[in-house]
Automatic annotation (TrEMBL):
Pfam families: ketoacyl-synt, Ketoacyl-synt_C. It comes from Draconibacterium aestuarii. The lineage of its organism: Bacteria, Pseudomonadati, Bacteroidota, Bacteroidia, Marinilabiliales. Pathway: Lipid metabolism; fatty acid biosynthesis. This is 3-oxoacyl-[acyl-carrier-protein] synthase 2. The gene is fabF. SMART domains: PKS_KS (SM00825).
């Protein structure tokens, strides 16, 4: 069958660098760190005392007070970014057919804070759970509630693949429109893991940076002295739309979504394949799915978490996938600024990729101080300062615990 074309006509975000697309891009371009001391809870007993928290978020702007009490923070972030994206798209909700609009969302954990609070309250305060415990906590509820709010009756589910969750959601949303099963899809991801359980859990794995004396420089992708990732939180949402429909209504178009790849490392529960085999496959298959060649790619927003093993495997995969063209690519890890949003990472990093194309500017990988001899220093990681260059095609890589890999391909129209 002939596949239909898919474009992005709306975007919204709530993240550590800003509560709008415009604010997010301004801070990305300027290399601003979103890290600082944790304010969500008392960190006295915690090894890591900092994170990239969302700042100045006011849920009442996006939902009624009675709804806020029923929704975990990850759902509140989803509602806010989706509201922005739908308004940004200019879609007339009174004229569209709700049967042809779907929601595919990504969340790696879901309502972790709700789970923690309810379990603690049951143990220490009351011998019962709230009737909202299950619907508030489950990872699929954000996407379900978005569909209920707007009357979107098309395909609706949540992808849960750790840090690749939002990218998998975006690929599935693209394919729903490609195959004619929907005309419009709301997609993206949200996460709210900056809480006692989230930080303590990742600390126990020794996955988080412990650079408490200098949080703003703690996320150091590809730096020799990196010591783990920095937790982030937030959301990004997109309106994906069938190309002809978008053109017909005169919609603003951010970019075309031209392909996606999915693979598995099949190696280890939490560690990446040391040679980047799964990462190589996912980029290769994403480029093929887009009908492109490796030399067509200009920019890669890499997974780049600032972890000892992952930051070695991904550059190996890039070199293996692109050969000599790897040295002509621009590469950056925006996690150096936003921290790692876990299941929402693919959404805000996909947005960063699209904004980079729109502005022909590669956002930097900040906090680079010392080259790692195990990483090819001839690759252009855009260290510390943004770089102007023409970007026509961008890849966004996300890799998750369990060996889940997803890559999305965006193209400038």
């Amino acid at each position: 069958m002939e596949l239909r074309r898919v474009v992005i006509t709306g975007a919204g975000t709530i993240n550590p660098l800003g509560n709008s697309v415009e604010e997010y891009w301004k801070n990305l371009k300027n290399g601003v760190s979103g890290a600082g001391p944790i304010t969500h809870f008392d960190t006295t007993l915690h090894t890591t005392k900092f994170a990239c928290e969302v700042k100045d978020f006011d849920a009442i702007q996006y939902m009624e007070r009675k709804e806020i009490r029923k929704y975990d923070l990850y759902t509140q972030y989803a509602f806010a970014s989706t509201d922005q994206a739908i308004k940004d798209s200019g879609i007339d909700l009174e004229k569209i057919d709700g049967d042809r609009v779907g929601v595919i969302w990504g969340a790696g954990i879901g309502g972790l804070q709700t789970f923690y609070e309810e379990a603690r309250a049951y143990k220490d305060e009351r011998p019962r759970f709230s009737p909202f415990f299950i619907p508030k906590m489950i990872a699929n509820i954000a996407g379900g509630l978005v569909s209920i709010k707007y009357g979107f009756r098309g395909p609706n589910y949540t992808t849960v693949s750790a840090c690749a969750s939002a990218s998998h959601a975006m690929i599935d949303a693209m394919n729903m429109i490609r195959m004619g099963k929907a005309d419009i899809m709301i997609t993206g991801g949200s996460e709210a893991g900056v809480n006692e359980a989230g930080v303590a859990g990742f600390n126990s794995m020794r996955a988080l940076s412990t650079r408490n004396d200098d949080p703003s420089t703690a996320s150091r992708p590809f730096d020799k002295d990196r010591d783990g990732f920095v937790m982030g939180e937030g959301s990004a949402a997109f309106v994906f739309e069938e190309y002809e429909s978008a053109v017909k209504r005169g919609a603003k178009i951010y970019a075309e979504v031209v392909g996606g790849g999915m693979s598995a490392d099949a190696f280890h529960m939490t560690a990446p394949d040391p040679d980047g085999k799964g990462a190589k496959l996912v980029m290769k298959w994403a480029i093929e799915d887009a009908g492109l060649k490796p030399e067509d790619i200009d920019y890669i927003n890499v997974h780049g978490t600032s972890t000892p093993l992952g930051d070695i495997a991904e550059p190996k995969a890039i070199l293996s996938t692109f050969g000599n063209h790897a040295y002509k690519l621009s590469i950056s890890s925006t996690k150096s600024m936003t921290g790692h949003l876990l299941g929402a990472a693919g959404a805000i990093e996909g947005l960063a990729s699209v904004l980079a194309m729109q502005n022909n500017t590669v956002p930097p990988t900040i906090n680079h101080f010392t080259d790692d001899p195990e990483i090819d220093d001839k690759l252009d990681f855009t260290f510390n300062v943004a770089k102007e260059r023409e970007i026509n095609v961008a890849l966004s890589n996300t890799f998750g615990f369990g060996g889940h890999n997803a890559t999305v391909v965006f193209k400038k129209l």
